[in-house]
Amino acid sequence: MIKLEQVSKIFYKKKREIQALKDITLRIEKGDIFGIIGYSGSGKSTLVRTINLLERPTSGSIYLSGKNIVSLSEKELIPLRRKIGMIFQHFNLLSSRTVFDNIAFPLQLTGMTKAEISQKVDNLLDMVDLSEKRDEYPAALSGGQKQRVAIARALASDPEILLCDEATSALDPQTTRSILSLLKRINRELGITIILITHQMEVVRAICSRVAVISEGELVEENDVNTLFELPKSPITKELLNPTLTID
Ligand SMILES: Nc1ncnc2c1ncn2[C@@H]1O[C@H](COP(=O)(O)OP(=O)(O)OP(=O)(O)O)[C@@H](O)[C@H]1O
């Protein structure tokens, strides 16, 4: 279980204060697919990055399996970060390495033998349905295929949690559907807790069980997906559910 208690984050930019997160309290159950939705600049990325302490909160606590992690040193965080995989909107693959080597990369630091790494990477390639692209370079792949490689790389260290930062935002609807169904399968078959941030309500509806809405760094609403879609409370949620494009 992941618990955030009164998490705040202030950035300082040329002496200007930017309050990216304000007193966020949130609980994410093990095995959930949890959505965090909000407009651009609302604090979604900052929030998700506090969960693996890529961003340290200015105040508040973050509990992973009951342990407050905010005071851990960078060294103490290493084994914990291995339990948290992350994927991104623009995939973040190494362009000079093949698909195989991109996925093998996190395993090369673990003391596994070449044969063990090869076996594990082949299993992961099979899971994301990309075995035939094993020796290609990222430039030769479609966006959806690149995201599958990124997912396989994230799974290589056997994470308990997968953080997805706008993972489908650069993809067309059909490819988005295939990536979401892969994430759902990973959640079901491997029991990995998935936290997915997005500005697309349809993504939340497709796979999340619970969802939190954030606006200007504040948690404005949290509920199970069906209730949130049927009975949205906050104006922001209503707007996200029913977007209109009006130009002044
Ligand atoms: N490293 C940083 N230094 C200064 N300000 C930052 C930093 N990271 C984020 N911010 C600011 O914090 C606020 C929240 O940003 P964040 O990236 O978390 O929002 P977001 O909802 O993920 O937006 P987007 O969907 O556009 O990525 C913004 O005002 C942003 O400019």
TrEMBL record:
<keyword id="KW-1003">Cell membrane</keyword>
<dbReference type="GO" id="GO:0005524">
    <property type="term" value="F:ATP binding"/>
</dbReference>
<feature type="domain" description="ABC transporter">
    <location>
        <begin position="2"/>
        <end position="241"/>
    </location>
</feature>
<keyword id="KW-0813">Transport</keyword>
<dbReference type="InterPro" id="IPR041701">
    <property type="entry name" value="MetN_ABC"/>
</dbReference>
<dbReference type="InterPro" id="IPR027417">
    <property type="entry name" value="P-loop_NTPase"/>
</dbReference>
<keyword id="KW-0472">Membrane</keyword>
<dbReference type="InterPro" id="IPR017871">
    <property type="entry name" value="ABC_transporter-like_CS"/>
</dbReference>
<keyword id="KW-0067">ATP-binding</keyword>
<dbReference type="InterPro" id="IPR003439">
    <property type="entry name" value="ABC_transporter-like_ATP-bd"/>
</dbReference>
<keyword id="KW-0029">Amino-acid transport</keyword>
<keyword id="KW-0547">Nucleotide-binding</keyword>
<protein>
    <submittedName>
        <fullName>ATP-binding cassette domain-containing protein</fullName>
    </submittedName>
</protein>
<dbReference type="InterPro" id="IPR003593">
    <property type="entry name" value="AAA+_ATPase"/>
</dbReference>
<keyword id="KW-1278">Translocase</keyword>
<dbReference type="Pfam" id="PF00005">
    <property type="entry name" value="ABC_tran"/>
</dbReference>
<dbReference type="InterPro" id="IPR050086">
    <property type="entry name" value="MetN_ABC_transporter-like"/>
</dbReference>
